[in-house]
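Input chain follows. Return structure tokens only.
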Amino acid sequence: MIRRSIVAAASLAAVVVGGCSSPPPTTTVTTDTACDSATTVAIDLPVGGSRIVDAIHDGHCILLPGSASAQEYVVVAYAGQGDATTDGVSDRYALQGNPAGASSVVLARQGRAFRAPYGGIAAARFDSRRRADARTLAQSPSLHPSALLHRSVTPVPVVGAKDSFFVCATLDCNGFNRIGATVVYAGQSGIIYVDDHQLTGADSLTNADIVQLGTVFDQYLYPTDTVSFGRESDINGDGRVDILITPAVNGLTPDCSDGRVIGYFLANDLVPGNLGSNAREMFYAFTTAPATLDCTAVDRSRALTELPPTLIHEFQHMISFNQHVLLRGGSDQVEWLNEGLSHFAEELGARVVPDAACPAAPDCFAEFANDNLLNAFSYLSNPEATFLAVPADTSPGLPERGAAWLMIRWLADHYSADTLLGTALTRNLEMSTTVGADRIAQTTGVDFATLVGNWQLANWLDNLPGFPQTGLLNYRSWNFRDVFAAGYPSVFDAPYPLVPDIATGTYARTGTLRAGSGVTVRFQLPAGSPAVPVRLAASLGGATIDGLLLPRFAVVRTQ
């Protein structure tokens, strides 16, 4: 768990970090960079200056100038594509920087293993499947905006009232069980039901615990999400969101080796008449549970710590479905951006919920920010291996979620009047029929491929000692170098996860570029060195790289 003493380190002076992983395997080859004047863009930058180069239309080579004094250039070769196609946009690449005919070292990056957040891979996969279900439902004729008229008006339930609900019977949610539950909390925005059948031997939640959770939802989670993303629907006319705490959620993951499902939202509940629809706005949440052979116990403290971030995350999904599908008759938000916004909602909880509202955690920043930091560390440990624009038929893993959150965080820092909370940006992203990278470009007024390049540079340059922290190449709201360094080695396995390759004039690397990600290299040119051509191609000395990737160089001079 990240403590405030770690997160608060963002306000302190940056620390110097160095390499922390084992050197990658190498193979020596001899080849030619095949750069000529017609395909080469000469780089002429002051220290701190940067440039984005289109590797198809501007030139597939850049020329780093020689100088009488030592210089360093950070180069990110990346795929600027933001389309989340079925299989994802990716292809092989070779990045080469050396005088013609020189020997080069071919590098292949090795990523590090890193522990998952509490919900883990199982929760991420389950969440992804529910988003896929929502995209399918968005095509239903019954979800035309005219169908928003209330089909009935449901009286607001009171404490002690009973009801019954459909719940997912399996992890695939291809069947439903029916359970009974009782209202324990009835608030202005949220109603909390507790399953009438709890697990024996569990460290049970008390009525006071439920009231505490409902109060946090009413006072902080609900207003934060609705201000940041827009309003949810109200298909049953009661003006409330129902929260069902049930062992049925625990039962979805009887083997917790890949984590466990903590809670979820089903778009199916917003389609009255569909099989398994509860015809209302609602969430499902796990409860306390005894230890089993394959799962550790969920005690009161753990449940109360995990539930608020889960609710603010899932509520964003509910709002997003309403804004894109129910209100405007469009398609559901693309998954990588939908998840990025929900993880951003968790960060908002860390920033707005007071510590007194998180009695089971060290503080609220720890409670709400922990998973995002873990995911971000996982992504930055090996960006090349991770999609930002995740394939439509693939569940975003924890590194992909880290990438999406970092991208939204960076965009909010630079393209919203309120750079800390990012309200103008997030509302504009959701209140539209346009989704994904296209909507990001519309909202910022900058093409997506250019945004990706500046963001990738910021992932290395943010609070880098000696580098000016102005312009776009940083995070205004975080000092990730201090955050990760303060958690090393107790929480994180390195003081900073991103470790660029270092090239001293001769360099070559092969791998795969994936939509929205790339490889970062520090080209260190000693005093008196000649100019160094750097080529991005499909293979060493081979054909031009696939233009569908929207391949780009992002270049900055750091010395």
